[in-house]
């Protein structure tokens, strides 16, 4: 067992999946010889060769189309999009083809392709490099959307996604690539998808988050524990399909809910979670549901990025409002 970063955990999961299944193929811009812009595929080209780790032209739509073709032909492509801000041309292939093959063929064909992409802010990158477009993909039927928040969950969830038979958008928070470290084993064990993870038990308020907002939620919970407030922290992890039951049951217990994400407020996935909580736990609510999110603006560059991103201070203010509500 050794201390592992999140990006190293992704690399380990990819290597494990490729070693156990020769149908797994990695493709994308600079994923081969260079090992990827964040080094997530480092060493895989040398180990598995050019036939299974393929550098592609600078065409996200092309990467998507090739992946759909490979998946429907019996392979398991894992495509990397260098930054989520470049993923939008790929939506055509995901929405119109990958997510529809099972229904289109009445179950005779599957499209088990994985689209990996870094997402989110916190590394002071230029425009198009710090996007959080997860809600766009949650609106596509037939598609799974997964965002890990720790090395262990990145490893186990990516293995589960690759071993499955459905198309998956797997978004990896760049802020956590080397900012999250923990001891973990490369044991090949997958984690369950379509399920939230309760990271901390609590009785007074439920904090719901995913990706890079999980450390901020946990920090908030620790700060409020000193004040006598017990916060339950839930990592959504799989946004689509959503494990609403775990969230609703938590709010039924605590009576208060604060939802945190770094995507803009309007149209953010937190609105869907708030609706599910209102539908399933309305009579248990002791305060209005709170949302702490990014703003309805383009991610500001460099120094203003930290103003945009939710942090423990902003989350704490939401907890304060929820606890004070009478």
Layout of strands and helices, then pairs:
Blueprint: E1 2-5, H1 6-20, E2 24-28, H2 44-48, E3 53-55, H3 60-72, E4 76-80, H4 91-96, H5 101-104, E5 114-119, H6 134-138, E6 144-146, H7 151-163, E7 168-173, H8 174-177, E8 181-184, E9 197-200, E10 205-209, H9 213-226, E11 231-235, E12 238-240, H10 244-254, E13 257-264, H11 269-281, E14 290-294, H12 305-308, H13 312-324
Parallel strand pairs: 2-3, 2-4, 4-5, 5-7, 6-7, 10-11, 10-13, 13-14
Antiparallel strand pairs: 1-8, 6-12, 9-11
Helix pairs in contact: 1-7, 9-13, 10-11
**What is the helix fraction of residues, given as a range?**
25-40%
Distance between the termini: 49 Å
Largest sheet: 7 strands, mixed
Beta fraction: 15-25%
- The helix/strand series, from N terminus to C terminus, equals EHEHEHEHHEHEHEHEEEHEEHEHEHH
Can you tell me the residue ranges where pLDDT is under 50 for at least 5 consecutive residues? none
In total, the number of domains comes to: 2
Name of the CATH superfamily of the largest domain? Thiamin diphosphate (ThDP)-binding fold, Pyr/PP domains
What spatial order of strands do you see in the largest sheet? 3-2-4-5-7-6-12
Tell me about this structure.
The strands form 3 sheets. The protein has a 7-stranded mixed sheet, with helices on both faces. The chain has a 5-stranded mixed sheet with strand order 9-11-10-13-14, with helices on both faces. The model has no long low-confidence stretch (mean pLDDT 96). Helix 11 links the parallel strand 13 and strand 14. Helix 1 (6-20) runs parallel beside helix 7. The chain has helices spanning 6-20, 44-48, 60-72, 91-96, 101-104, 134-138, 151-163, 174-177, 213-226, 244-254, 269-281, 305-308, 312-324, and strands at 2-5, 24-28, 53-55, 76-80, 114-119, 144-146, 168-173, 181-184, 197-200, 205-209, 231-235, 238-240, 257-264, 290-294. It has 2 domains: 2-184, Thiamin diphosphate (ThDP)-binding fold, Pyr/PP domains (Rossmann fold, 3-Layer(aba) Sandwich); 197-324, Rossmann fold. The longest helix is centred in the first third of the chain and has 15 residues, at 6-20. The chain is of the alpha/beta class and 326 residues long. 37% of the residues lie in helices and 20% in strands.
